[in-house]
Amino acid sequence: MAVTPGSSDPAHDVFAAFGDGDPRTDEDLVHDFLDGDTAAFRRIVQRHRARLTNVARRYAANEDDAQDIMQEAWLKASTSLGTYRSEAKLTTWLHRVVANKGYDFVTHKARREQPLLDDTDTAHRYSEQLVHDPYEQVDRTLLLNQVIASLPEHQRTALILVDMLGHDLDSAAAELGVQTGTVKSRRARARASLRGSIGAGA
């Protein structure tokens, strides 16, 4: 079909929509990959790598850590695409895969006890118990990990960014695209849940 000056080629518009020269939608690429087209997964990686790497950086102390998270996330995605349902956007599904791998990375890297609680009485109580029970620190760390994993994702992310990765409230808010006060309140609710669970387990 000839394209007259000033008009647009519909096929070119489709290519431009994805910016990668491939007219297939994300759902098409998933379908093709599950049918054995390994190149389709490479196209998914190329299409979404930049945005998802920014997600990984929220959980990373440096670029090497971010790339490690992405490597694990792409591996998980490639072996789990059969569970993807097109009712949700692929970007949303991939975002969750990366976020979960980021959380795993942080918690595995921080197996030692984290200074997440400001409650002096709680800290003192556990310090006294450690004198009598050398395994208390291990038990407490396991409990912390379980409680953190059970937090709503937005609270967990705020807690990890500020308390584990050392972001201040402003930079955490910038990473998440929300107001500083929102991060502050999410983190406060997460810490309250931790205190309540640790206190109940004492």
UniProtKB/TrEMBL annotation:
Residues annotated as domain RNA polymerase sigma-70 region: 44-111
Region entry Disordered, spans: 1-20
GO molecular function: DNA binding; sigma factor activity
Gene3D superfamilies registered for this protein in UniProt: 1.10.1740.10, Winged helix-like DNA-binding domain superfamily/Winged helix DNA-binding domain
Keywords: DNA-binding, Sigma factor, Transcription, Transcription regulation
UniProt-listed InterPro entries: RNA_pol_sigma-70-like (IPR039425), RNA_pol_sigma-70_dom (IPR014284), RNA_pol_sigma70_r2 (IPR007627), RNA_pol_sigma70_r4_t2 (IPR013249), RNA_pol_sigma_r2 (IPR013325), RNA_pol_sigma_r3/r4-like (IPR013324), WH-like_DNA-bd_sf (IPR036388)
Residue ranges annotated for the RNA polymerase sigma factor 70 region 4 type domain, each copy included: 143-194
Membership in a protein family: Belongs to the sigma-70 factor family. ECF subfamily.
Any Pfam family hit: Sigma70_r4_2
Keyword S-adenosyl-L-methionine: no
Full protein name: RNA polymerase sigma factor
UniProt record, GO biological process: DNA-templated transcription initiation
